[in-house]
Amino acid sequence: MGSSTKTVCRGLALALGGVLVASPALANWTLTNEGGGSYVLSGAADHADTLRAECGPNGTLSFAYIQPGNWEDVLGTIPMTLWTSTDDGPKHTMKVTAKKFGENGVAYTNDSDMQAIYTALVDVRNALVTIHLGVEAASYGVSWTDTSSAKDSTATTREFARKCGINIDKPPPPANAWSPNDQR
Predict the structure, then answer these.
(1) What percent of the chain has pLDDT over 90?
(2) What range does the domain containing 107 cover?
(3) Which of 77, 95, 72, 81 is nearest to 141 (CA)?
(4) How far, in Å, CA of 138 to CA of 60, rounded?
(5) Distances in Å between the alpha carbon of 160 and those of 8, 22, 58, 61, 103?
(6) Which end of the chain has fewer surrounding CB within 10 Å, N or C?
(7) Once rounded to an integer, what is the mean pLDDT over residues 120-125?
(8) Poorest-pLDDT segment among 18-27, 70-79, 119-128
(9) What's the CATH number where 23 sits?
(10) CA distances (Å), 31 to each of 41, 48, 68, 88, 99, in order?
(11) Segment of 35-39, 104-108, 132-136, 162-166 carrying the highest mean pLDDT
């Protein structure tokens, strides 16, 4: 994963019983052209954590939450829930794989569940105020919620989807049947 993402918003993080409060600053999300047909849609939360969607050539698509200074020793596949605006808003749980990121970090990634990735992109697009991510996996000793605040991200998310050949207003194609030209 590239290091070209920008810090675009700050939020509220609740982690492992510890509470850190930061005033959310409203800012648009960032779309970065990584070259070679790869694009990154990113928004930042507290602790320099980053929420990102990535696409690349040959139809690759992923959704990730990255904690570069992560203090949790967790690897493997765990559930992550993404929801928007309010705690009682629409929620979607995706399976993410926790992988080591850098020296002390972890990246929670989803690169195979198209339904979850589409839902995440639609949630990002519709998040006029906040995006919430929650991991609840007691068997891994992990439980936290991180909130990012951003302005209307519709234009940025639509541009990301367009460049990636995705129509996020349509249901995703069947599993293992997606190509970058299917949803144009």
Answers:
(1) 3
(2) 11-164
(3) 72
(4) 31
(5) 16, 28, 16, 11, 29
(6) C
(7) 73
(8) 18-27
(9) 2.60.40
(10) 5, 17, 20, 29, 24
(11) 35-39
Total structural domains within the chain: 1
SS (H, E, C) 25-90: ECCCCEEEEEECCEEEEEEECHHHCEEEEEECHHHCEEEEEEECCCCCCCCEEEEEEEEECCCCCC
How far is 160 from 116, CA to CA, in rounded Å?
Answer: 17
- Residue with more model confidence, 11 or 182: 182
Tokens 């367009």 belong to residue: 162
Q: Which residues does 129 contact at the CB level (< 8 Å), separation at least 6?
A: 85, 149, 150
In a domain, 91, yes or no: yes
* Closest to 123 in 3D by CA, of 80, 78, 179: 80
